[in-house]
Specification:
Oligomer: single chain
CATH class of one domain: Alpha Beta
Strand order of the largest sheet: 3-4-2-5-7
Mean pLDDT: 79
Structural class: alpha+beta
Helix content: 25-40%
Largest sheet: 5 strands, antiparallel
């Protein structure tokens, strides 16, 4: 009978264990280098869209020593304004009340402290204009109907998702080109993408433009009999992309 010593068994077990450990390390592959060089860039993309709608805000102000009378007079003038807008082709559904207020009015003379001077009632009406080319005619109708002040908010398309994605694609492409240029200037090349993030601006609201009766009267006196001029601007959709890439050093 062969004798097997305890020492031989221990050596055999150690060899098997070492073999398993070696196989396990090899199956995991090389450990990534946490200090490998990287290149980070950011860029923005822009897409322009035509404005296709606008909000026109009208306000009617009335003053009276009595708060009740100020409100009553305001109601009559507001009805006249709304009728004028509807006669100009504005649908009832596109006319809404955006604000109403009755408050104490104050007046001051010289260095004297302000003193109560009756009440002021203000009714604000918002009109949605689906075609920006009709904004001038709507302004004229509102002023002729008794509006004391007009302001216009020009808006872009309702759906800007497609434009936002195109802006993102432009931003990513530009960021990658910058990263490639940096890698080449450093004597290497661009490796795999590590991280890519983005930021898109909210749907923009265009400038506000104000008109009043004095402006329109001046244009008519100057010989212009057309609608109030209104020039629509393009809407800019922007997006920013930020990327990180591995830097692959060149051969020395």
């Amino acid at each position: 009978m062969r004798k097997i010593s305890i020492g031989m068994i221990v050596l055999a077990l150690a060899a098997i264990t070492a073999g398993d450990a070696s196989a396990q390390v090899q199956s995991q592959g090389p450990t990534p280098n946490a200090f490998a060089p990287e290149i980070s860039t950011s860029a923005s993309g822009y897409v322009r869209l035509p404005a296709d709608r606008a909000y026109v805000d009208f306000s009617v102000d009335t003053r009276n020593p009595s708060a009740a009378e100020a409100g009553k007079q305001n109601s009559l003038r507001t009805v006249t304004l709304m009728d004028a807008l509807k006669n100009a082709g504005v649908a009832q559904a596109d006319i809404v009340t955006s604000g109403y207020n009755v408050s104490q009015n104050y007046e001051s003379e010289g260095n004297r402290s302000p003193r109560p001077a009756g009440f002021i009632a203000r009714n604000s009406i918002r009109v949605t204009v689906a075609k920006v080319e009709n904004v001038g005619r709507v302004i004229d109708a509102g002023l002729a109907g008794g509006a004391m002040q007009v302001s216009v908010m020009q808006l872009g398309p309702v759906d800007t998702n497609d434009a936002r994605r195109r802006a993102l694609a432009l931003a990513v492409a530009d960021a990658r080109r910058d990263a490639e240029a940096m890698a080449a200037a450093a004597g290497g090349s661009l490796g795999r993408l590590i991280q890519l993030t983005s930021f898109s601006s909210p749907s923009p609201m265009m400038r506000e433009m104000s008109y009043n009766q004095v402006v329109v009267t001046g244009m008519v006196a100057g010989g212009y009999n057309g609608p109030t001029p209104f020039s629509a601007r393009e809407i800019t959709i922007s997006a920013t992309a930020m990327g990180r890439w591995e830097f692959v050093p060149g051969l020395r």
